[in-house]
Amino acid sequence: MIFVHDKGRMANNMLQYGHVYAWGREHGRTTMSMRFAYKYPWFEICDTKHHNFPTYLFAKYGAKMGLIPTVHFDQENGDYSHEEQMMLEKRMIVVAGWYARWYDLFEKYKSEIKELFAFKKDVLATARLKLGEGNAVRVGLHVRRGDYKTHLGGRFYYNDAQYVDVLKQFKALMPDTKVIFFVCGNDPELNRGYFKKELEDEMCKVDFPDGNPAEDMCLLSLCDWLIGAPSTFSLVAAMYREVPLYWIEDPEAPLTKERFKLFNELFRKIY
Predict the structure, then answer these.
(1) Calpha distance 257→87 (Å, rounded)
(2) Could you report how far apart the first and last alpha carbons of the chain are, in Å?
(3) Block mean pLDDT (10 aa), the chain, length 271
(4) Phi, psi of 193 (to 5 degrees)
(5) How far apart are CA 31 and CA 49, in angstroms?
(6) N or C: fewer beta carbons within 10 Å in the chain?
(7) Paired sense of beta strands 93-96 and 70-72, if any
(8) Looking at the DSSP assignment, which residues form a beta bridge with residue 15?
(9) Spatial CA neighbour of 241 closest among 223, 253, 257, 229
């Protein structure tokens, strides 16, 4: 059994476990996500074998007491041949670290990973209800602030005006099309009135879903297009249905349809 000691927030945990799951599938090893054993109850993986609180405690304290060895993947582009050999040889082992990555294997088993992280029925129903019906183009915007004020020196910390400017450019790409912008994020000080004032007209509506993390991710995954600062949250949302995603790496760059990319390209260049 390989226990995955996940790092960061929900979307980071999903990607990290996905990589280790793919490695395990390729080498005939069973894997278990320690975070999804107790922390995020909204996904099908939470109801699978081994994903429960007692198993989480067993792995956590077994590793803490030195009864279960731990291998660390903490360095980008490190040589992890020794760690992988231990993962093959040990009956039980904990894998920790953000750089446990096997991109080709992730792509190979991506359909299984998406099934594991399928949203539970109540989450999906809530997201679909908020998404509504009709023939408008639905665009999900993920506003990532909070910790992004210091992450990478604030490189991707954008204000309301910068996000609104990108959405205006998207409207200009589809001038004769009804558009609904669904704005999700983690900033309680987001100026919702400003978004509506600057964007809404007879062809455009702005909505703020206000869901829990899984409901927001599910709703984003059901949109036709996605936009956001580079973040694993929007990236994982794009994975489910191969939704085109535009990561705002430079808020001054002009927006074109060619700047939207699919998951398989973007997940190899996570910041």
Answers:
(1) 43
(2) 30
(3) 91 97 98 96 95 96 96 94 97 96 98 98 97 94 86 86 97 94 91 96 95 96 97 97 97 95 94 77
(4) -60, -35
(5) 10
(6) C
(7) parallel
(8) none
(9) 223
